[in-house]
Design brief:
about 375 residues, 2 domains, binds zinc ion, Neutral Protease, domain 2, alpha/beta, single chain, 15 helices
Length: about 375
Protein backbone atom coordinates (compact mmCIF):
# COMPACT_ATOMS: atom_id res chain seq x y z
CA UNK A 1 0.00 0.00 0.00
CA UNK A 2 2.77 2.38 0.87
CA UNK A 3 4.53 1.91 -2.41
CA UNK A 4 1.28 1.94 -4.25
CA UNK A 5 0.37 5.13 -2.53
CA UNK A 6 3.87 6.59 -2.65
CA UNK A 7 3.42 6.59 -6.34
CA UNK A 8 0.30 8.78 -6.70
CA UNK A 9 1.55 12.38 -6.74
CA UNK A 10 4.13 11.51 -9.31
CA UNK A 11 1.38 10.28 -11.57
CA UNK A 12 -0.33 13.60 -11.44
CA UNK A 13 2.98 15.42 -11.82
CA UNK A 14 3.75 13.33 -14.87
CA UNK A 15 0.24 13.68 -16.21
CA UNK A 16 -0.22 9.96 -15.77
CA UNK A 17 -3.90 10.22 -14.96
CA UNK A 18 -4.73 10.24 -18.63
CA UNK A 19 -2.43 7.38 -19.56
CA UNK A 20 -5.14 4.82 -19.17
CA UNK A 21 -6.94 6.38 -22.10
CA UNK A 22 -4.17 5.15 -24.33
CA UNK A 23 -4.77 1.56 -23.27
CA UNK A 24 -6.97 -0.89 -25.18
CA UNK A 25 -10.47 0.36 -25.82
CA UNK A 26 -13.94 -1.10 -25.71
CA UNK A 27 -14.28 -4.80 -26.29
CA UNK A 28 -18.00 -5.44 -26.19
CA UNK A 29 -21.35 -3.72 -26.25
CA UNK A 30 -23.62 -3.07 -23.30
CA UNK A 31 -26.98 -4.72 -22.90
CA UNK A 32 -30.05 -2.82 -24.14
CA UNK A 33 -32.29 -0.90 -21.78
CA UNK A 34 -34.20 -3.34 -19.61
CA UNK A 35 -37.40 -1.34 -19.29
CA UNK A 36 -39.14 1.76 -20.56
CA UNK A 37 -37.66 4.84 -18.96
CA UNK A 38 -40.06 6.51 -16.53
CA UNK A 39 -41.00 10.09 -17.30
CA UNK A 40 -39.65 12.88 -15.13
CA UNK A 41 -42.06 15.70 -14.30
CA UNK A 42 -41.16 19.00 -15.96
CA UNK A 43 -41.12 22.22 -13.96
CA UNK A 44 -43.72 24.86 -14.92
CA UNK A 45 -41.28 26.82 -17.05
CA UNK A 46 -39.91 23.63 -18.66
CA UNK A 47 -36.43 22.19 -18.43
CA UNK A 48 -33.40 23.97 -19.76
CA UNK A 49 -31.74 21.10 -21.66
CA UNK A 50 -28.22 20.79 -23.01
CA UNK A 51 -28.33 17.81 -25.39
CA UNK A 52 -25.30 15.63 -25.90
CA UNK A 53 -24.16 12.53 -27.75
CA UNK A 54 -23.91 10.51 -24.56
CA UNK A 55 -26.00 12.45 -22.06
CA UNK A 56 -28.71 15.10 -22.13
CA UNK A 57 -28.47 17.34 -19.09
CA UNK A 58 -31.59 19.07 -17.76
CA UNK A 59 -32.11 21.72 -15.10
CA UNK A 60 -34.12 24.78 -14.27
CA UNK A 61 -33.29 27.93 -16.22
CA UNK A 62 -31.65 29.40 -13.15
CA UNK A 63 -29.15 26.52 -13.34
CA UNK A 64 -28.47 26.79 -17.06
CA UNK A 65 -24.79 27.59 -16.53
CA UNK A 66 -24.41 24.44 -14.41
CA UNK A 67 -26.39 22.41 -16.96
CA UNK A 68 -24.12 23.57 -19.77
CA UNK A 69 -20.98 22.95 -17.74
CA UNK A 70 -22.00 19.42 -16.83
CA UNK A 71 -23.11 18.65 -20.39
CA UNK A 72 -19.66 19.65 -21.61
CA UNK A 73 -18.12 17.52 -18.89
CA UNK A 74 -20.27 14.49 -19.77
CA UNK A 75 -19.40 14.83 -23.45
CA UNK A 76 -15.79 13.94 -22.71
CA UNK A 77 -16.18 12.05 -19.45
CA UNK A 78 -18.63 9.37 -20.64
CA UNK A 79 -16.40 8.07 -23.47
CA UNK A 80 -13.28 8.44 -21.32
CA UNK A 81 -14.78 6.49 -18.42
CA UNK A 82 -16.24 3.89 -20.78
CA UNK A 83 -12.84 3.38 -22.37
CA UNK A 84 -11.14 2.98 -19.01
CA UNK A 85 -13.80 0.43 -18.03
CA UNK A 86 -13.42 -1.41 -21.33
CA UNK A 87 -17.05 -0.67 -22.23
CA UNK A 88 -19.00 1.15 -24.88
CA UNK A 89 -21.53 3.77 -23.81
CA UNK A 90 -25.07 2.43 -24.08
CA UNK A 91 -28.30 4.40 -24.30
CA UNK A 92 -28.08 8.16 -24.04
CA UNK A 93 -28.32 9.13 -20.40
CA UNK A 94 -30.57 11.80 -18.92
CA UNK A 95 -29.03 13.82 -16.12
CA UNK A 96 -31.35 16.01 -14.03
CA UNK A 97 -30.09 18.87 -11.87
CA UNK A 98 -32.78 19.23 -9.26
CA UNK A 99 -33.49 22.70 -7.84
CA UNK A 100 -34.53 21.72 -4.30
CA UNK A 101 -34.22 18.89 -1.82
CA UNK A 102 -37.91 18.17 -2.28
CA UNK A 103 -37.55 18.02 -6.06
CA UNK A 104 -34.50 15.76 -5.76
CA UNK A 105 -36.63 13.16 -4.01
CA UNK A 106 -39.94 13.76 -5.78
CA UNK A 107 -38.62 13.56 -9.33
CA UNK A 108 -36.94 10.20 -8.89
CA UNK A 109 -38.70 7.01 -9.96
CA UNK A 110 -38.30 5.52 -6.47
CA UNK A 111 -37.36 6.24 -2.88
CA UNK A 112 -33.96 7.76 -2.15
CA UNK A 113 -32.19 8.39 1.16
CA UNK A 114 -32.25 11.91 2.60
CA UNK A 115 -28.48 12.23 2.59
CA UNK A 116 -27.92 11.09 -1.01
CA UNK A 117 -25.95 13.62 -3.03
CA UNK A 118 -26.57 11.96 -6.36
CA UNK A 119 -28.38 8.89 -7.62
CA UNK A 120 -28.08 6.67 -10.66
CA UNK A 121 -30.74 4.36 -12.11
CA UNK A 122 -28.59 2.27 -14.44
CA UNK A 123 -31.34 0.27 -16.13
CA UNK A 124 -33.00 3.51 -17.21
CA UNK A 125 -29.78 5.47 -17.80
CA UNK A 126 -31.05 8.14 -15.41
CA UNK A 127 -29.00 10.29 -13.06
CA UNK A 128 -30.18 12.87 -10.52
CA UNK A 129 -27.90 15.51 -9.04
CA UNK A 130 -28.54 18.56 -6.88
CA UNK A 131 -28.30 22.18 -7.93
CA UNK A 132 -25.30 24.07 -6.51
CA UNK A 133 -27.90 26.34 -4.86
CA UNK A 134 -28.78 23.54 -2.42
CA UNK A 135 -25.29 22.11 -1.94
CA UNK A 136 -22.60 23.17 0.48
CA UNK A 137 -19.74 25.18 -0.95
CA UNK A 138 -17.33 22.57 0.39
CA UNK A 139 -19.20 19.60 -1.02
CA UNK A 140 -17.56 17.29 -3.55
CA UNK A 141 -17.59 18.93 -6.98
CA UNK A 142 -20.61 18.18 -9.12
CA UNK A 143 -18.29 16.90 -11.84
CA UNK A 144 -16.95 14.30 -9.41
CA UNK A 145 -20.43 13.30 -8.29
CA UNK A 146 -21.49 13.08 -11.93
CA UNK A 147 -18.49 10.87 -12.79
CA UNK A 148 -19.37 8.61 -9.84
CA UNK A 149 -22.92 8.20 -11.12
CA UNK A 150 -21.76 7.82 -14.74
CA UNK A 151 -19.67 4.82 -13.71
CA UNK A 152 -22.73 3.29 -12.05
CA UNK A 153 -24.78 3.72 -15.23
CA UNK A 154 -22.02 2.43 -17.52
CA UNK A 155 -21.57 -0.67 -15.37
CA UNK A 156 -25.31 -1.19 -15.11
CA UNK A 157 -25.70 -0.87 -18.88
CA UNK A 158 -22.90 -3.40 -19.40
CA UNK A 159 -24.23 -5.92 -16.90
CA UNK A 160 -27.79 -5.72 -18.25
CA UNK A 161 -29.93 -7.85 -16.01
CA UNK A 162 -27.00 -9.34 -14.09
CA UNK A 163 -26.47 -7.96 -10.60
CA UNK A 164 -23.33 -5.85 -10.23
CA UNK A 165 -21.39 -6.77 -7.07
CA UNK A 166 -21.81 -3.84 -4.72
CA UNK A 167 -18.10 -3.60 -3.92
CA UNK A 168 -17.41 -3.43 -7.64
CA UNK A 169 -20.05 -0.74 -8.24
CA UNK A 170 -18.95 1.51 -5.42
CA UNK A 171 -15.25 0.71 -5.69
CA UNK A 172 -15.16 1.50 -9.40
CA UNK A 173 -17.32 4.63 -9.00
CA UNK A 174 -15.01 6.02 -6.33
CA UNK A 175 -11.81 4.94 -8.07
CA UNK A 176 -12.67 6.44 -11.45
CA UNK A 177 -14.29 9.60 -10.09
CA UNK A 178 -11.14 10.25 -8.04
CA UNK A 179 -13.10 10.70 -4.83
CA UNK A 180 -11.48 11.19 -1.44
CA UNK A 181 -9.22 8.19 -1.71
CA UNK A 182 -6.71 9.77 0.64
CA UNK A 183 -9.21 10.24 3.39
CA UNK A 184 -10.63 6.81 2.91
CA UNK A 185 -7.22 5.19 2.94
CA UNK A 186 -6.23 7.03 6.10
CA UNK A 187 -9.53 6.16 7.72
CA UNK A 188 -8.97 2.53 6.85
CA UNK A 189 -5.35 2.56 7.98
CA UNK A 190 -6.21 4.13 11.31
CA UNK A 191 -9.22 1.93 11.71
CA UNK A 192 -11.30 5.03 12.36
CA UNK A 193 -14.31 2.84 11.92
CA UNK A 194 -13.33 0.75 14.95
CA UNK A 195 -14.63 -2.28 13.14
CA UNK A 196 -13.11 -5.45 11.81
CA UNK A 197 -12.72 -5.40 8.03
CA UNK A 198 -15.70 -6.73 6.15
CA UNK A 199 -14.88 -9.78 4.02
CA UNK A 200 -15.55 -8.97 0.37
CA UNK A 201 -17.94 -11.88 0.17
CA UNK A 202 -20.22 -10.10 2.63
CA UNK A 203 -20.49 -6.88 0.62
CA UNK A 204 -21.28 -8.39 -2.75
CA UNK A 205 -25.07 -8.34 -2.75
CA UNK A 206 -25.38 -5.17 -0.68
CA UNK A 207 -23.78 -2.95 1.93
CA UNK A 208 -24.58 -3.17 5.65
CA UNK A 209 -27.64 -1.15 6.68
CA UNK A 210 -25.95 0.76 9.50
CA UNK A 211 -24.12 3.93 8.49
CA UNK A 212 -20.73 3.17 10.04
CA UNK A 213 -20.39 -0.27 8.47
CA UNK A 214 -21.66 1.15 5.19
CA UNK A 215 -18.89 3.80 5.31
CA UNK A 216 -16.35 1.08 5.96
CA UNK A 217 -17.75 -0.89 3.03
CA UNK A 218 -17.33 2.15 0.75
CA UNK A 219 -13.78 2.72 1.93
CA UNK A 220 -12.84 -0.94 1.55
CA UNK A 221 -14.40 -1.16 -1.90
CA UNK A 222 -12.47 1.86 -3.15
CA UNK A 223 -9.20 0.68 -1.72
CA UNK A 224 -9.62 -2.87 -2.99
CA UNK A 225 -10.18 -1.62 -6.54
CA UNK A 226 -7.17 0.70 -6.21
CA UNK A 227 -5.15 -2.24 -4.92
CA UNK A 228 -5.97 -4.36 -7.99
CA UNK A 229 -5.13 -1.46 -10.29
CA UNK A 230 -1.86 -0.87 -8.48
CA UNK A 231 -0.89 -4.53 -8.42
CA UNK A 232 -2.05 -5.64 -11.85
CA UNK A 233 -2.73 -2.45 -13.80
CA UNK A 234 -5.98 -0.93 -15.01
CA UNK A 235 -6.27 -3.67 -17.61
CA UNK A 236 -7.01 -6.02 -14.73
CA UNK A 237 -10.01 -3.90 -13.81
CA UNK A 238 -11.30 -4.19 -17.37
CA UNK A 239 -10.82 -7.97 -17.15
CA UNK A 240 -12.72 -7.99 -13.88
CA UNK A 241 -15.62 -6.04 -15.39
CA UNK A 242 -15.85 -8.09 -18.57
CA UNK A 243 -15.61 -11.41 -16.69
CA UNK A 244 -18.34 -10.48 -14.24
CA UNK A 245 -20.55 -8.82 -16.84
CA UNK A 246 -20.46 -11.94 -18.97
CA UNK A 247 -21.46 -14.20 -16.11
CA UNK A 248 -18.23 -15.38 -14.44
CA UNK A 249 -18.39 -16.17 -10.74
CA UNK A 250 -16.72 -13.59 -8.50
CA UNK A 251 -13.98 -16.01 -7.46
CA UNK A 252 -13.16 -16.85 -11.08
CA UNK A 253 -13.22 -13.19 -12.15
CA UNK A 254 -10.86 -12.20 -9.33
CA UNK A 255 -8.54 -15.05 -10.29
CA UNK A 256 -8.62 -14.00 -13.96
CA UNK A 257 -7.41 -10.51 -13.11
CA UNK A 258 -5.11 -11.14 -10.13
CA UNK A 259 -4.18 -14.84 -10.22
CA UNK A 260 -5.59 -15.12 -6.69
CA UNK A 261 -8.80 -16.51 -5.31
CA UNK A 262 -11.28 -14.13 -3.75
CA UNK A 263 -10.11 -15.03 -0.23
CA UNK A 264 -6.42 -14.80 -1.19
CA UNK A 265 -6.98 -11.42 -2.83
CA UNK A 266 -8.94 -10.24 0.20
CA UNK A 267 -6.08 -11.25 2.53
CA UNK A 268 -3.39 -9.77 0.27
CA UNK A 269 -5.27 -6.48 0.06
CA UNK A 270 -5.72 -6.36 3.84
CA UNK A 271 -1.98 -6.88 4.23
CA UNK A 272 -1.37 -3.82 2.08
CA UNK A 273 -3.21 -1.43 4.39
CA UNK A 274 -0.59 0.41 6.47
CA UNK A 275 -0.81 0.05 10.21
CA UNK A 276 -2.28 2.69 12.48
CA UNK A 277 0.93 2.78 14.49
CA UNK A 278 2.87 3.82 11.40
CA UNK A 279 0.48 6.67 10.79
CA UNK A 280 0.76 7.66 14.45
CA UNK A 281 4.52 8.00 14.07
CA UNK A 282 4.14 10.10 10.93
CA UNK A 283 1.69 12.36 12.72
CA UNK A 284 4.04 12.97 15.65
CA UNK A 285 7.35 13.45 13.88
CA UNK A 286 7.35 15.76 10.91
CA UNK A 287 11.05 15.27 10.20
CA UNK A 288 10.47 11.56 10.19
CA UNK A 289 7.67 12.15 7.68
CA UNK A 290 9.99 13.52 5.11
CA UNK A 291 12.72 11.03 5.89
CA UNK A 292 10.28 8.21 5.36
CA UNK A 293 8.88 9.92 2.30
CA UNK A 294 12.34 10.37 0.83
CA UNK A 295 13.16 6.77 1.65
CA UNK A 296 10.09 5.49 -0.09
CA UNK A 297 10.67 7.75 -3.04
CA UNK A 298 14.19 6.36 -3.27
CA UNK A 299 12.90 2.83 -2.96
CA UNK A 300 10.26 3.56 -5.55
CA UNK A 301 12.95 4.84 -7.92
CA UNK A 302 15.06 1.76 -7.24
CA UNK A 303 12.13 -0.53 -7.92
CA UNK A 304 11.41 1.36 -11.11
CA UNK A 305 14.97 0.76 -12.24
CA UNK A 306 14.88 -2.87 -11.23
CA UNK A 307 11.56 -3.64 -12.74
CA UNK A 308 11.99 -1.46 -15.78
CA UNK A 309 8.24 -1.32 -16.18
CA UNK A 310 6.52 1.89 -17.02
CA UNK A 311 3.33 0.81 -15.34
CA UNK A 312 5.05 -0.05 -12.11
CA UNK A 313 6.75 3.32 -12.11
CA UNK A 314 3.45 5.05 -12.62
CA UNK A 315 1.81 3.29 -9.74
CA UNK A 316 4.76 3.81 -7.48
CA UNK A 317 4.54 7.49 -8.31
CA UNK A 318 0.90 7.44 -7.39
CA UNK A 319 1.76 5.67 -4.17
CA UNK A 320 4.26 8.45 -3.43
CA UNK A 321 1.63 11.09 -3.90
CA UNK A 322 -0.77 9.35 -1.60
CA UNK A 323 1.87 8.97 1.05
CA UNK A 324 2.96 12.58 0.68
CA UNK A 325 -0.64 13.62 1.21
CA UNK A 326 -0.84 11.41 4.31
CA UNK A 327 2.19 13.23 5.64
CA UNK A 328 0.80 16.64 4.79
CA UNK A 329 -2.54 15.94 6.42
CA UNK A 330 -0.86 14.51 9.49
CA UNK A 331 1.34 17.57 9.82
CA UNK A 332 -1.58 19.96 9.51
CA UNK A 333 -3.35 18.11 12.26
CA UNK A 334 -0.28 17.88 14.45
CA UNK A 335 0.11 21.66 14.11
CA UNK A 336 -3.49 22.16 15.09
CA UNK A 337 -2.94 19.96 18.13
CA UNK A 338 0.13 21.96 19.19
CA UNK A 339 -1.96 25.11 18.93
CA UNK A 340 -4.53 23.56 21.18
CA UNK A 341 -7.20 23.85 18.54
CA UNK A 342 -7.83 20.17 18.16
CA UNK A 343 -7.45 17.03 20.22
CA UNK A 344 -4.72 14.76 19.00
CA UNK A 345 -6.81 11.81 18.05
CA UNK A 346 -9.31 14.02 16.39
CA UNK A 347 -6.51 15.54 14.35
CA UNK A 348 -4.61 12.35 13.75
CA UNK A 349 -7.67 10.61 12.57
CA UNK A 350 -9.28 12.08 9.52
CA UNK A 351 -13.00 11.91 9.81
CA UNK A 352 -14.40 8.83 8.12
CA UNK A 353 -16.17 9.55 4.86
CA UNK A 354 -19.54 11.14 5.34
CA UNK A 355 -22.46 8.75 4.95
CA UNK A 356 -23.22 10.08 1.50
CA UNK A 357 -24.45 7.75 -1.19
CA UNK A 358 -24.98 4.90 1.22
CA UNK A 359 -27.33 2.39 -0.30
CA UNK A 360 -30.33 1.77 1.86
CA UNK A 361 -31.98 -1.09 0.12
CA UNK A 362 -30.98 -4.01 -2.01
CA UNK A 363 -32.83 -2.79 -5.08
CA UNK A 364 -30.71 -3.52 -8.13
CA UNK A 365 -32.36 -0.58 -9.83
CA UNK A 366 -30.71 2.25 -7.97
CA UNK A 367 -27.18 3.11 -7.02
CA UNK A 368 -26.20 6.17 -5.06
ZN1 LIG B 1 -22.15 5.07 -5.60
Amino acid sequence: MLLRALALAVVFALGGAGNALAEPGPTWRPAPESAARPSVTEPAEGWFTAPGLYADVHGEWADRATVTRLANHAATSVPALAKRLGLRPGATMDVYITPSEAAFHELQPGRTPDWADGTAWPSWSLIFLKSPSIRSGTATSLETVLDHELVHVLLGQAFGGRPVPRWLQEGMAQFYSGEASWERSIALAKNDFGLAPLPLGTITTGFPPDALRAQLAYAQSADFIAWIAGRNGEGALRTLVSELATGAKVNDAIRACTGLSLDEANDAWLGSVPSASALYRWATNSQLHWAIGAGFLGLAAWRRTQAGKVKLARWEAEEAARTAELFRQAELRAEAARNGTEGFWAMAALAPPRPRRVVIDSSAQRAT
